[in-house]
Specification:
about 35% helix; OB fold (Dihydrolipoamide Acetyltransferase, E2P); 2 domains
Length: about 525
């Protein structure tokens, strides 16, 4: 039976065909074990170099030779006078057997490398065994590097060894693994057959690394706060509920890290941040996953303007360092991340994009009527106030129009229970959200540090919760107790790392930037 899963002109295999191939491979494994060659018993293999490094080193040696001797004739390969000897390992992704010699494509974490395997070099018995190996098997080999007559940098194998047997056939390269549902469920297969998807996760790692350095350089301290809490606070979201058996206590998986981090500000840790997973029992769509990653940071004696500078600095700086440019493409739009992003109050944004000037409206009824006149409706749980009408107009008519990076500031009190009121207009708060390509990427406040005001707002949230809104804040007495000890003026921000990575990679769904997104079981 062929080592290939299927041929270019056939459809993907049926389950029965897959099972038949699995059995063939199991029989091969049994034969290896019987011969005392069980690959799963191998515990270590010495790898001296990865493919990307091999290419770079070889090209440097070749360039030095060309500088001294001149370029070789076309169709002539190149072998260094002093062989570059390597020991590599990876997954065999293709093989071309040509009698006494074969070419294989070997993939490691850094890319692919062609390998030349000859019976004369590895020995007749080893070569005969090698010909029975399967696509997907993991192998180790030693050899030296050369450039073929066709111009491809390759490894000439002098020794080869089976390190792990692949019992399940990979999707055939012409059909590949295209179905997104299968790709996300079996990310391990996705990474094997679609190695280009690794780019998103490399960029994700680089972004988090850049963010950490950015904050560490500004004297922030990274901390950890509980994932399990007796109160779900810090955001308007529905929590996941679990149960602690020993304490016989229902607990909530955290929906934000805000309240514990603010307690640390009270305690005198003036600059803190946490990068971690957040859990919200809500809907799923291209921008939402029930568990996701955020950074939350808090700085004493700062305000939301300072947080705007940090948000802009992190995203624009990361784009320049990781991608080498401020220009990115996302969701079909060309985005310019050059520093100097636009800043609009919510009143200004609604006036510009909708035509209603809430700055000239002082009456709640008039504000609600103005919203309804353009087809905007308030939720049943929301009070018919000026602030709720303003926010509804923004949410339903403006957000979708924000393409280039824009900070929307001065949110109504009703939707900002943890934010300090504006000293100019007490109906609004010193809060911003960052929007790029009609997506929210960050949310920040001049933090409310008045325990009396905070208690009143918590109570209003509790009333709204009783009217049926189960995403409102819970009353947290210990947090209020902390505020009563005194919290300095503080600026705080939360930024969604997954969406930031979507922006930097051009991904159109959050599942492309989360290695293991939440999926409904097939059975």
């Amino acid at each position: 039976m062929s080592n290939q899963v299927n041929t270019p002109d056939t459809a993907p295999m049926t389950e029965q065909q897959v099972n038949e191939l699995v059995q063939v491979r199991l029989d091969k494994l049994a034969a290896l074990c019987e011969a005392g060659q069980n690959p799963y018993e191998i515990t270590k293999y010495d790898v001296t170099a990865y493919h990307a490094e091999i290419r770079k080193d070889f090209e440097a040696v070749e360039a030095a030779w060309i500088a001294e001797h001149g370029a070789p004739e076309e169709g002539v390969g190149f072998e260094p006078a002093t062989p570059i000897e390597v020991s590599v390992a990876g997954r065999m992704m293709s093989r071309r057997i040509m009698g006494k010699a074969s070419f294989i494509d070997l993939h490691d974490a850094t890319g692919r490398m062609q390998v030349y395997v000859s019976r004369n070099d590895v020995g007749e018995e080893v070569y005969a065994g090698f010909k029975k190996w399967d696509i997907g098997d993991i192998i180790g080999l030693t050899g030296w590097v050369f450039r073929t007559k066709m111009g491809e940098i390759s490894i000439h194998a002098t020794g080869i060894k089976l390190l792990s047997k692949s019992l399940r056939p990979l999707p055939e390269k012409y059909h590949g693994l295209k179905d997104t549902d299968t790709r996300f469920r079996q990310r391990y297969v996705d990474l094997i057959v679609n190695p280009e998807v690794k780019r998103n996760f490399i960029i994700r790692s680089q972004f988090i690394k850049y963010m950490r350095k950015y904050l560490d350089d500004r004297r922030y301290i990274e901390v950890e706060t509980p994932v399990l809490n007796t109160i779900a606070g810090g955001a308007a979201a529905r929590p996941f509920i679990t149960h602690h058996n020993t304490l016989d206590l229902d607990m909530y998986m955290r929906i934000a890290t805000e309240l514990p981090l603010k307690r640390l500000i009270v305690g005198g840790m003036d600059r803190v941040y946490e990068i971690g997973r957040i859990f919200r029992n809500e809907g799923m769509d291209p921008k939402h996953n029930p568990e996701f990653t955020t950074v939350e940071l808090y700085e004493a004696y700062a305000d939301f303007h300072d947080m705007m500078d940090i948000a802009e600095g992190i995203l624009s700086g990361a784009a320049k360092e990781i991608l080498g440019t401020y220009e990115v493409e996302w969701l079909g739009e060309k985005i310019d991340l050059t520093p100097g992003w636009r800043r609009l109050t919510m009143v200004e944004a609604v006036k510009e994009y909708v035509g209603i000037d809430f700055g000239a409206i002082t009456d709640d009824a008039e504000a609600v009527a103005a919203a309804k006149a353009i087809g905007v409706e308030l939720s049943d749980a929301a009070e018919p106030t000026w602030g709720n009408a303003l926010y509804a107009c923004f949410d339903q008519r403006v957000e979708e129009k924000l393409i280039q990076p824009t900070f929307i500031t001065m949110y109504p009190v009703e939707v900002s229970p943890l934010t300090k009121k504006s000293p100019v207009d007490p109906r609004v708060t010193e809060r911003f959200e960052l929007f790029v390509c009609h997506s929210e990427l960050a949310n920040a406040y001049s933090e409310l540090n008045d325990p009396i005001d905070q208690r009143e707002r918590f109570l209003k949230q509790a009333e709204q919760r009783e009217r049926g809104d189960d995403e409102t804040e819970m009353l947290d007495e210990d947090f209020l107790n902390a505020l009563e000890y005194g919290m300095p003026p503080t600026g705080g921000m939360g930024m969604g790392i997954d969406r930031c990575v979507m922006l930097l990679t051009g991904a159109d769904t959050i599942r492309e930037v989360i290695l293991f997104p939440t999926m409904k079981p097939l059975d």
